[in-house]
Structures are given as C-alpha cells and as structure tokens.
Amino acid sequence: MKTVVYPGTFDPPTTGHVDLIERASRLFDQVIVAVAESHSKHPLFTLPERVDLCRQVIEAVGLDNVKVEGFSGLLVDYVRKQKAHALVRGIRAVSDFDYEFQLANMNRRLAPEIESVFLTPSEHLSFISASLVREIAKLGGDVSEFVHPVVARALSQKLQER
To answer: Staple partner for 84: which of 3, 32, 136, 155, CB 3.0–4.6 Å?
Structure first.
C-alpha cells in the first residue's frame, strides 16, 4: 500500500488544499493530512481546531482513503512513523518552487527513502493561500468562495472572539 503525507499548517484549510488532497487521493492508496503544530507561524486556530476543521472538510467531501492527524517535531520522523513512501507538496506559482525545492532537498538529505511529490492546484485555485484567506476574513471580506462552509463559519466565529 502506497501512503503519502500531505503536511501543512492548514490555518485554515482552503479549497486549494482540498483540491490537492483530492488529487493525491487518486494517486496514492492512503493520504495522511498531517497538520503541523507550527508555533513559529502563530496560527489563528489551535492545532486541535485545525485538525477538526480538516477532518470535517474531508468527511464532507467524502474521501475514504484520507485521514487527518496533528503532529509536531521533525516531518521526516513523522513520515517514517507513518510508514509513508512520499510527501506531497503544493506549488501554486514559480515563487513557491524555490522554497519547496530547498525543503525537498533537505528532506532527501535527512531521509533519502522518502520521495517528494509536487502537485499543482487547479488553475482557478492557484491564487488561494491560507494567509490571504485569513487576511480577507480579518478585514470583514467574504471568504466563502475560498473555503468550505464549515471553515467559513469557524473563521467568522474565531474572529468574533478576538
């Protein structure tokens, strides 16, 4: 069974993330959406909240070969623990490539048995990023086009709490 890990902060999960998860689910037997703790990024949502949002979205989309877990620590250690064969990363634009290429080479150095696979989102989703969605939501804009309704509600509620 070929397993891939799709790591990220998912703060919040966007339609772009879901698009890549769907693509990966067609290529691999199992996809593990690995939600990173990421204290350095100062996420809006807590790790348990992000895991829960991802699970709700995956359940709503109906992807049976996808599971969601939170993790902390070194990514390659997590991938090995999951007995995964690869990492999937999304590239929206050329600007993403430099960073992702550097990450892939470092991961290869740390864990040569783990491959990095790059997927591009559907063209109409290529401009969506979680940071842009958060910014639009913070400024009172409508993000319903960029996230699942569950996520839109959670964003609205979270921002009202602040």
So the answer is: 3
Which residue's entry shows tokens 């979205």? 57
Structure tokens, 158? 């979270």
DSSP for the chain reads --EEEEEE--SS--HHHHHHHHHHHHHSSEEEEEEE--GGG--SS-HHHHHHHHHHHHHHHT-TTEEEEEE-S-HHHHHHHTT-SEEEEE--SHHHHHHHHHHHHHHHHH-TTSEEEEE---GGGTT--HHHHHHHHHTT---TTTS-HHHHHHHHHHHHH-
pTM check: above 0.90? yes
Residue 6, exposed/middle/buried by CB under 10 A (0-12, 13-18, 19+)? buried
Q: Quick one: pLDDT at residue 161?
A: 84
101-115 pLDDT tens trace: 999 999 999 999 999
Chain CA centroid to CA 129, Å: 10
Q: Position of tokens 């691999």?
A: 28
Q: Cβ distance 51 to 71 under 8 Å? A: no
Query: pLDDT, tens digit, for every residue of 46-64?
Result: 999 999 999 999 999 999 9
